[in-house]
Structures are given as C-alpha cells and as structure tokens.
C-alpha cells in the first residue's frame, strides 16, 4: 500500500464530493417531515409510506421492471447472435456494412431512435403499451450487448469450436456446449447492461409508451414537472439502495471467483 | 530406427492389392491467389504412422485441415475409406484431430473433456464412463480427472488432448505438432507412447512435425513437403539414405553438399568438383545426365578422418581442421579444403578417455567409400 499525498487526498475528496453530494442530499431529504422539499422539518419516514400507497407509482415501477427484464433478455439473445455471426463467421459479403449498421444506434441521438420507432408503431398499427416499449428498448440495447459480447468473442480461440465439431458436435451443439459457456460472463454483463439501460431510459420510453403503460422514469419526470414531492426523493432513495446492493453483490461475487481461480491455479502449479 | 524392423513386414504402399485409407488425388488449396497446396496426390494406408515434414508455411496444417474437414479443397478429391469427403462436414467424419494448441475446453474437467466426443455419439452413461476411465489409464492421468485444464501442467494437457482425440477410436487420427511444447525427454517418452498406442489401437496416424528426428523415430513413412508440393514420400530410412533431391537431403539430417558437374555415369556416378582433383564417386540420383551440373551429398557420419592419407578409398580429400565440437556421444570436425568447401564429419566417442588425435589447424585426410555419397541433380 502506498501512502496518499495531500494532493491526492484533496483531489479524491473533491471528485467523490462532486459525484455523491447530490445523491446524499436527496437521501437526506427523503426523510424530511416537511412538505416543502427545501426546508428541513425534522426526521420522518412518512414519505415512504405515502409511496407505498401511491398505486400509479407502484404500477409504473412494475411496468419498468417487466420492460427491463423482457427487453434485456431479448436484446441479449439478438445481440449475442449478431456478435457471433459478425465475429466468428469470417468475412462474408457485406460484413463491414452489417457491423457498421449494428453499431449505428450507439451514436444515433435517442430522440431520433424514439421518433422513428413511434412512426413505425403507428404505421403498423401497434397499440402503444408494454410491448412497444419492450421492442424499442430491445432495439437500442441490443447493440450494447453486441459490443460487449463481440469484444469477448474476438479473443475466443477458434480452434475450441473446431475441436467440438471434430468430436462430432453439430454447429449448434458446439455453440451451446463450448462457446456459450465460455463467453457466458460477457453475455451476463451484456444482459445487466441492457437491463440498467432500460431501467433508466426516459427519452425512447416517452416516445413509445402509451396511456396504458408508463415507466418509472416517465412517471418521475412528469411528476417533478408539477413540483418535486418528497415522495420522489423516497423513491429515488430506494432505487439508490437497490443499485448499491446490486453493485456490491456483483463485485463481491466476481472478486470471490477471481480469488478462487487464483487459489486453484496456485494449487495446480 | 523404429521403421527399420517393421519395413519387411509392413509396407502396404508397395502392395498393389492394398486398399488405401486416404486417397488424396490432385488436391489443391488456394487462399485468394496464393496456392497453399499444389496438386498433391498421396495414398495413406490403414495402420500407417504417416509423418508430414516441411519448413514453416509449406502447407502441412492446411493439408491436415482438409482431411479433418475444416477447409474445402479448391480442386481435386479426398476420399477416406472409399467415401468422397468433399461434402462431409467435420462432425460427420470418422476422423479426429489433436490440435497443436490442444484446444481443450477450459470450462470442462479433464474427465468431461475426454467424454465430450463420446457423449455426442449418444453412448449411454456407463459406456461413456468405462471408455473415459480406459483413456485416463492409457495416458496415466487417473488422479487428475476432476481438474480443469488450467490446473494441470503442459505435458499433462497434451496427454488429455491425445486421450480426447483417441476416445472415439477414430479410423484416422491427425496430430498437428502434438509434442511441440514438450521438453526433449518427455517428448521421447511420448513418442514411444504414441507408437505404443498406435500398435494397441490400430488407428492410422498422420502426424505433422517440425522435428525431423521425431518423424524418423515414429513414422512408417515420411512425406517431405515444400511450398505446397510433395517432394518425396518414403520410409525414414530411404528418405535419409536415398534422398531424391538436394532439398530433401539438406532438409533431413546433416549433409555436406559439394557442387560440381557429372563427369562419368554408369553403375555409379563421378562428379568433377575441382580443377586437377580426382572426381568424387557416389551413387547416382534420378534423372542425371553426363555433363550436367550436380551436387555431391555426403552425410557427416559416413566420413572417416585420419592423419595419414588412406590408400584403400577412392574418395579422399585433404584439409585443415577449422573447428572441433564435442557433443558428448560424438565429436564433429569442420575441415576446410583448399578448394573452398568446408566439410563436416562426425566421429563417435567410443572411449571415455579423450584421444587428442587432432587439434585445430591440423592437416587431416577425409575419406569415404564409393557408395556412401549421392550425386544429385541440381
Ligand atoms: N486461412 C488462410 N488464409 C490465407 N492464407 C492461409 C490461410 N491458412 C494458411 N494460409 C497460408 O498457407 C500457407 C500454408 O499454411 P500452413 O498453416 O498449412 O503452414 P504449415 O506448413 O502448417 O506451417 P507451420 O509449420 O508454420 O505450422 C502459409 O503460407 C499460410 O500463410
Ligand atoms: Mg502448421
């Protein structure tokens, strides 16, 4: 361990303050007894109670979870397939065009993606609701999955799959039994990425959501426009807590895996 | 040499009635406008231990990959066991390949790696288990069955790869530089293990190697390749003693090459090599004509070294010792001839007490018999 110099301590503190003070204030005010967001009126958990009784909010949360789950799952399947074909199936005619096209949505302004999807859904007469949001989120998060998975596939040893074929596996079995288990960590992180992207998307969801289904970000954004209520603070605090727990668990699990692997390797060597 | 004893008994390539396991007929492979394999024709017979030898990039791996089904020939026909292989995908061939990189599945244990191919055949659990245990015993890895590939040593990994490719008892096993990563001792042990396995299982082996000593040790026949072409296909002994070209002579083992021109041709050949010197006598190679430029090829161990001029041999040259190398079991002398060439000769060290017969700068005579050298067309 190296000792930190004063300069390093100051820059670290400033950086973290910049990142976390807004959230800290939000968390503190979620326990504010006062109706006014900016005036401290003593400690209370009443806004959490209010939140639980707010059915529109609960509905929106439920829709958000559903959308995130289905869209990220769909995006993972499609993104993995696309990455596999683009990376592993060598050079075929039009490959450069395809790989360019799959990454285009990454740089496309969300407003344009949202608008074009909206126009599409109207054109084919699809009622806007959970399904349309799922489809929209799948479209834009699939290319993130594809990026994550292809970066893993690039370093994947081709001869493993050839060995599987050589031993009598069909091409699909070779993928399912050899390639997929090996790239699984990348697929899982792709899924998690798609899930979080879907959770906090506001722009595309607003274009493709209908009166029958509203996601949490839309709900929060529209209620904030009518004035910030402490209820929203409470909701945000819960979300922060969930995210924190998620991130911690993920890092602990992966750290354990690494240490276990290192220990096994040490034993073997 | 292993093949020496076998040769009389096992030589299906000399038998017109023998049916080859692999027929390679006018096979070419082009990558873009680069020709990696150039119209190769070759028969490999059941139970052969066939070695492919050649410099890096000459197309050995490409030929193997065509046999395994990972590459399609650009022209020609490959048939295995009488069946045309062009449209048969790798997973439908009774051929297994041991990859140079081993290609062990990192997420599966040693046991599951070996069982992989058996399970694909839909064998029931007990049969799979029995076969895997048998394979583990064969390669002596019983106690490592539950380990993952990254938890065992390089040599053990290589044996797992071997066991995995043998488990399905393929008709044909392709080994692409299987022993490249092993140290010399382990490599020799494994070579004998391979020959043992081959004898026990009766599988046909095709082995690619950079190491010509390895090819000489294990192979029933050796094919020497250069730039996508087969130069010579023969038993190790013939390849070594009667190379058909300067290329093969130079590629296999150590050889002295002396340029000159053919001065006489009959049962033997004479090569004029220096003004005013008697010609060198040797056995003639193929397609030789009188007056043609040719090369005299003589192996270092066939040359005798002496202080006095030997009277009983026609081939004798005088020179000065340039360098002496002590290699334990033998000593090598580099002798510079006044005419230019430097000749290398090898002498076995039979006695443990060093006889300091010769030293640097000594004038010595080199001699060899009329049948020891070859006169090869250039
Ligand atoms: N997929 C490919 N595309 C283009 N060229 C290729 C391809 N595969 C092989 N080649 C070329 O074909 C030639 C033969 O390659 P190959 O791998 O068969 O050589 P090798 O004899 O196995 O060499 P080494 O002993 O180094 O393994 C090389 O010049 C190589 O560059
Ligand atoms: Mg090779």
UniProtKB/TrEMBL annotation, chain A:
The record, for CDD domains, names:
TM_PBP2 (cd06261)
SUPFAM superfamilies (UniProt xref): MetI-like
Record keywords, A-Z: Cell membrane, Membrane, Transmembrane, Transmembrane helix, Transport
Topology versus the membrane: Multi-pass membrane protein
Entry-linked PROSITE patterns: ABC_TM1
UniProt domain ABC transmembrane type-1: residue ranges = 61-250
Subcellular localization is given as: Cell membrane
Source superkingdom? Bacteria
State the PANTHER family in the record. Answer: PUTRESCINE TRANSPORT SYSTEM PERMEASE PROTEIN POTI
User: What does the similarity note say?
Assistant: Belongs to the binding-protein-dependent transport system permease family. CysTW subfamily.
Q: What is this protein called?
A: Inner membrane ABC transporter permease protein YdcV
Q: Which gene encodes it?
A: ydcV_1
Automatic annotation (TrEMBL), chain B:
UniProt catalytic activity = ATP + H2O + polyamine-[polyamine-binding protein]Side 1 = ADP + phosphate + polyamineSide 2 + [polyamine-binding protein]Side 1
* Source organism of this protein record: Boseongicola aestuarii
**Database matches in PANTHER family:** PUTRESCINE TRANSPORT ATP-BINDING PROTEIN POTG, SPERMIDINE/PUTRESCINE IMPORT ATP-BINDING PROTEIN POTA
Highest taxon of source: Bacteria
Q: Keyword ATP-binding on this protein?
A: yes
Taxon lineage: Bacteria, Pseudomonadati, Pseudomonadota, Alphaproteobacteria, Rhodobacterales
Protein name, entry field: Spermidine/putrescine import ATP-binding protein PotA
Leading EC class: translocase
- GN (gene name): potA_1
| Residue intervals of the ABC transporter domain | 22-252
Q: What is its EC number?
A: 7.6.2.11
